[in-house]
dual-specificity kinase (Ornithorhynchus anatinus), 542 residues
Amino acid sequence: MRGLAGPRPLSRRQRRPRATPGCPSLGRAGSRRRWTGRSVGGSSWPGAEPRAGNPGGGRSGRGRDPCPRGADCLAGGPPGPSPPQSGRRGGGGLGPTQPLVPHSRDRLPYQRRYRDHRENEAYRFADRSPSFGEDYYSSRPHHRRRSRERERHRPRKHPHHCRKRRTRSCSSASSRSRQSSKRSSRSVEDDKEGHLVCRIGDWLQERYEIVGSLGEGTFGKVVECLDHARGKSQVALKIIRNVGKYREAARLEINVLKKIREKDKENKFLCVLMSDWFNFHGHMCIAFELLGKNTFEFLKENNFQPYPLPHVRHMAYQLCHALRFLHENQLTHTDLKPENILFVNSDFDTLYNEHKSCEEKSVRNTSIRVADFGSATFDHEHHTTIVATRHYRPPEVILELGWAQPCDVWSIGCILFEYYRGFTLFQTHENREHLVMMEKILGPIPSHMIHRTRKQKYFYKGSLIWDENTSDGRYVKENCKPLRSYMLHDSLEHAQLFDLMRRMLEFDPAQRITLAEALQHPFFAGLTPEERSFRCSRNLSR
């Protein structure tokens, strides 16, 4: 009869909310907030290491901003929802008619270097571009072992959902060795996420022999192969998951890469070249030239010691040169960041820095390539509202004023700062706080941009709504300072670099420096003739 009368009322003990195990504390001491899932920024998933220097969470933690890509946005760890966002009044308080200032999530201290690999990976990918674009080489660790163990003991109720194995086509007249023939006839298999199951020694298209793995991510995986049709030359083969949305996005990326290859057959403009592409049993595969590590990976392995100024100058010149080529061909990259800029050869020398009393790596050759065109957009195509990874996102995107090629210039300015100092300029995952940081570092947002934006919830009478008496307000006030205050040396070439960055970081995209103008900036007068030359390192025309 109890079932007809409704459920039994909960007792006081049952109604009391329980704390989530492993969840870092949020807010001030004594207050408690409950997470509805696992914390990504807090590294609270099983097996995660505690934060360096922050066993109790609090201000040293790093939160994340909800990303429109949802679960596909984070490839390096399990996706988790953001902590609940609630308004609160600071010590000084706001007027009764003004909206409350939202509380930004916890984050790393501003001057802190990223010391924990797993924490840093979650932070970097917590709020990246909502488009399909992925890193060229993804070094993120695999997190599917636990799910595989669960699947092993789970009864199969729907066997028709499992993917069927298919047999590779192999010519009977092939003259390959007996061992290669056995490998090429091995059945094709996908795992439950749609990744192609491949092993070292496997062949694809009777041409590409897999010799190693370069990484794996949401989009699929990247393997190192020998191209037997080109004298066993080394290539990086990007194998897309056998999932419809990734397959379609890969076709769009291939169209962009074909356009780039058509306009730059000799690789004079430093964009990574596609040498081949094909469909392998539902997996779109793209073959690229084999390059070195990306510039963020090298920075991380060097304990986030910044690049020397001559290296920053050469890489900046190449970036401006490559992106000017894209812009002249009506193409905007939209997702520039250190992860998508790769060294042609990342070999390095280890030197001892007497000033810092530590060893540091110095890359021998600073030649780079721009990669990841999965989110590149032509001028005539539809422009989505949100583009770019958070830390490199320009103000016109945050304010939803529309964007064009100048958004790439803003991203380059943020990248150059990160190369120069070793940490990101805007360390946040929340729009309002991002805008406040911009004003603290670069000056006030132009009034005409404030009047045009639909995001009036961030403003009150033409000014940003922000209370400096809150913990977030004090954090920004103490750690964000004018751009030129970050100069390491008071010399001419350092001042020239900051002048170039300041022109790239203009609020108004119409007033932002163009890349053609940037290439003529006095900062690049110190380049050697060899550094100014752009010679093709490899011939990969199909």
Remarks:
- The longest strand covers residues 208-216.
- Residues 18-120, 138-184, 536-542 have pLDDT under 50 and may be disordered.
